[in-house]
Each structure stands twice: as structure tokens, then as C-alpha cells.
Amino acid sequence: MELEPKQGKSMRSPTPTDHHHTSKLRRRRRRNICLAVIAVILLVVLIFVILGLTVFKAKRPLTTVNSVSVRDLDFSIDIARVRVLLNVTVDVNLSIKNPNKVGFKYTNSSALLKYRGEVVGEAPIPAGKISADETRQMNLTLTLMADRLLSNPNVYSEVIAGTLPLQTYTRISGKVQILFKIHVVSYTTCDLTVDIRSRSVGNQTCHYKTKL
């Protein structure tokens, strides 16, 4: 009696329908991955935008003149020539506060001493960086250049009268980088009257202006 060989389990060949279904699943998986990546990117961008408009919003550095004083004042009156030889040195103490959550970098600048709109003295302000929420103190010395006043007819009469109007001017220009770089310029102007006899500063009025 002959035994029939035992037949193994038959394997079904993939059909076009199976290939189509697998391809469809792969496309769906790739689409879901792409959508998830796009959603994460949009979420990150949204978070940065919210932080940029709130916590990290660019704020204007605040410049404040704490004091202006006369360090030195010497003068001599030439009655024959109706002119005055005048030397004045003014000390200016100012502070710059950076209210931002990132550093504020400023470029080389200068402080000016003016007499009736004419620049008669200058002091350099070297470039630097002010850290987040830091207040930087600056002590500037402005020396009046006597030769620049020789041709001004007002100096003689004002020195004789006992007062000399001067003006200090500082301009600090720099950048704050949060999501992108923002250019900031801070201006400070102080009008003051120097009492010739007491060699001190009388009236003093300061004005502040900042541009983003």
C-alpha cells in the first residue's frame, strides 16, 4: 500500500491588491510623519514669536546723566582786545541701563561739549557690551578747547556777566539681537550754566531720546 506524500502549507503569492494596500500604508505613514514635523516646526516658531513679543521683546536702553561738575576753570580777560582766554574741564557721570534679556553691544562713539551749538570739546566712548539687565556707569571728562572760542563774540560778554551756557551731548549707538538684530540709538543732551565766580554748575536740564 503506497502512502501519498504529505503536502505542506501552500504559500499565496502577493496580488496587485496587496501591493496597492502596502503602498497606500507607506504613503499614509510618510504623510503623517511630514505633518508631525511641520506641526513641531510651527509650534517652535510660535513659541519663539511669543517670547520675542513678550519676555524677549527689544527694549530701549536707558541713558541717565547722574551728575555734571566743573573740575577746572581758568580764565583771563584781555580788555584791550576785548576777548577772554578760557579753559574749562567738565566731568560727566552717566549710566546706561540695558533692560533687555540679552546683551546690548554699542559701537565707538563720543561725548561732545558745545557752546551755543558749536562743538568746543570732545571725549571718546569706546565700543563695549552691556549684559542683560546690567547698568553700566561711565565717567567722561570734557575739556573745552579755548582756541575754538576766540572768534565767538558772545564769550566775552557772558564771562563778564558771570555765567557761561554750555551743553553736553552723547550719542550711544548699538544693537540688540533677539530673533534678529535691532539697531538702537540713545541720545542725551544736558543744557547747563557754569557760574564763573563759584566755578560750579548752576542750572542743569537734561533731555533723553532713544530710537529703535
TrEMBL record:
Region (Disordered): 1-25
Transmembrane domains' residue ranges: 33-56
Classification via Gene3D superfamilies: 2.60.40.1820
Pfam families registered for this protein in UniProt: LEA_2 (PF03168)
Native source organism of the sequence: Ilex paraguariensis (yerba mate)
Domain Late embryogenesis abundant protein LEA-2 subgroup: 94-182
Keyword vocabulary terms for this entry: Membrane, Transmembrane, Transmembrane helix
The name this protein goes by in its record: Late embryogenesis abundant protein LEA-2 subgroup domain-containing protein
Top-level taxon: Eukaryota
InterPro entries: Lea14-like_2 (IPR055301), LEA_2 (IPR004864)
Keyword Protease: no
